[in-house]
Amino acid sequence: MAGIDADEFSDFVTHRSAALLSTAYLLCGGDREAARDLLQDVLERVYLRRRRVTGPLEPYVRAALANASANRWRTRSRRVLETPLESSPEQGTDGPEAAVADRDQVARALGGLPPRMRAVLVLRFFDDLSEAETAAALGCSTGTVKSQTSRGLDRLRTILDTEAVIQ
Amino acid sequence: MNETERLSHALRAAVADIRPDPGLAGAVVRGAKRRRRTRWTAATAGTVLVAVFAIGAATSLAGKPVGEVANTVPAEVWMQGPTRGSLGGDRAFLDRALAAWATGIQVSPNKDHLIGLTGQAHVYWAGTTPAGPTAIVAEDAVAGGERWPVLGLLVGETPRLVTDLPTVSLERRDAPVAFQFGDGDLVTLVPNPLDEPRYLSPAFDRAEPGGRAWLPMAGLDGVALTTLPAGSDPADVRVAATPDPDIRDAYFTYPSAHYTGGFAQQSQGGPVEFGPLSRETIERSDEALLVPGNTSGSLWALESASHREVFKEWIDPLARATYFGYETVVDLGDGRTAHAFPFWQKPDHLQLLVVERKEGEPDRVFEGSVVQAEPFLATAPLPGGRTLVTSLFGEVSHTTGGTWIAATGSAAVLPADATAFRVAGTGFPGGDIPL
Fold it and tell me: How many domains would you assign to chain A?
């Protein structure tokens, strides 16, 4: 088994890290720092085991990202929002900021899903993996992928409250 | 455009401005080499023996600088060669173990996760443990672009499958494992092909430097073994290759008690999603409650809190999960604030930790009293005889012996002369709670 040498791996990271970071960003529910940490963590692990990877590296790394995000443990990455006990009026978003807010909203809405359900949606609808490919990446059955997809879309719809956000 | 197409479109728009750090490739290589270094083991005084796990070869080198090696045990170590252990020559037992493996995996709670098995199985180790005759079986698996051995533990004269390790999760395939089995799961058995030193820590102990005492495990030709005294909690056990491990070096432990729950419950080293708090509470708690009149901000990004010196005595360095729930912030005056967190690091143990911060810096940590976990309600003493009451999300009122002071919110600082409080809301105690 030839595996992948160090130079090849560095080239891979250089050329594919933007796409992989995008996947990580969605897997982390729109948390940029957590996405950077996740990607670096996974790439370090893959670097150490690169000689035993038997197929193309990118699907392997995507699967590792999805699994690592779905199995995050020890410390949950989270943002702290301050909410004074006295209620304050909600502020609306207008103008050009609205588009950015909506984009963030979709990523954050993903963050409201259970990690494995989120991973299924990201692999299916961002990375365009088939149900079978998603199942293989996450080590589950295609039936699980189907049910997680269906439930995930339902929950995402509820979180976003309106389809307008994803139009 | 249908819904899923719109979702794909929205997801792509969401990452339009995502850019990696330009130095990522170099940082990855440096980080990977640091990881590898932490796995090196100083085996004997005066000589550094470096366990080099490479595909196709396992070699010990003296004083070799960090090289280009993988840190995985090659499949051949598990799948080939004579069976190790005191029962390695007991052909009848080995055959029974292999037969029990073959039938056991057909009905395993993990059978949907035992993917890519090739049918090539081998007894890696067989010996006698306090639980009886014991075998570790390895079966070759090829899936997900990798080849790796799936391990299983079988126990008894007529062996039965006690635990199998499907390791469908990529990051777990390389992780060293510790089986826990026997009465109360008090026997810990670690596959140890190179017969290196292995250490076991029974529990987190605040009095111990580093939070844990480490005991050398007994070596038994290819495995390491420790049996804990009755009354020990196997969930607290950690195993490592050094007596001063980093969290990343801690072994995954697999209590047999979790086996029948299937893969999701099998590993104590896996995700601990919610612990003693409900999903709803976790999802609602990503916010800080500022007690009215408070002028301070939230403490800090809580992820970093666990690394701070001030928490050292409170956090198990090898906790499977540490979770700080919502934060209640109280302004104490004189530049001091108190920050209270529901905190758990064991699924069955919820605490209220309070951090006093002086001029912005954490000064001391102490523990409050949890009245109930769900919905969360806790109290903590504050300077001047006052009491913090924090709930998620009740309405706190109190009395000083006469009239009741109306609720001000889900958290409140009660004066020193308060004698009782109440919390209104579903699931909270209905009556007065004396102070």
Answer: 2
Task: Tell me, rounded to whole angstroms, the distance of Cα B149 from its chain centroid.
Answer: 24
Whether residue B275 is predicted with pLDDT greater than 70 in this model: the reply is: no
Which range of residues forms the domain containing residue A15?
A: 6-70
Judge contact between A154 and A113, C-beta under 8 A: no
Q: Supply the DSSP symbol for B261.
A: G
**Within-domain flag for A82:** no
Whether residue B393 has a cis bond before it, omega within 30° of 0: yes
Is A167 in CB contact (< 8 Å) with chain B? yes
- The helix-helix angle for A6-27 and A32-49 (nearest 10°) equals 150
Residue B272 has pLDDT above 80, yes or no: no
- Do B267 and B325 contact (CB within 8 A), yes or no? no
Mind telling me how many Å the CA of B110 is from chain A's nearest CA?
11
Q: Which of A14, A39, A52 sits opposite B55 (nearest CB)?
A: A52
Query: CA distances (Å), A16 to each of A58, A111, A131, B13, B20, in order?
Result: 8, 24, 23, 18, 10
End-to-end CA distance of chain A: 46
Per-residue confidence band for B59, with pLDDT thresholds at 50, 70 and 90:
very low
Task: State the pTM of this model.
Answer: 0.60
Q: Are residues B158 and B207 in the same domain?
A: yes
**Are B180 and B262 part of one and the same domain?**
yes
Cβ of B286 within 8 Å of Cβ of A78? The answer is yes
- DSSP-derived 3-state class of residue A49: helix
- Return the closest-CA partner of residue B382 out of B359, B417, B405, B416: B416
How many domains does the structure of chain B reveal? 2
Cβ separation B14–A25 shorter than 8 A = yes
Among chain B residues, CA nearest to A14: B25
- Beta sheet of B215-216, edge-to-edge order: B215-216, B199-201, B238-240
Pairwise CA distance, residues A29 & A105, whole Å: 9
Mean pLDDT, rounded, for B265-282: 59
Residues 6+ away with beta carbon under 8 Å from B134: B126, B127, B128, B153, B154, B155, B181, B189
| Rounded distance between C-alpha atoms, residue B2 and residue A163, angstroms | 11
Q: Do A25 and B169 touch (CB under 8 A)?
A: no
Total Cβ atoms within 10 A of residue A77 = 18
pLDDT digits (tens, 9 = 90+) for A46-91: 887 777 676 788 888 888 888 778 655 333 433 333 333 333 333 3
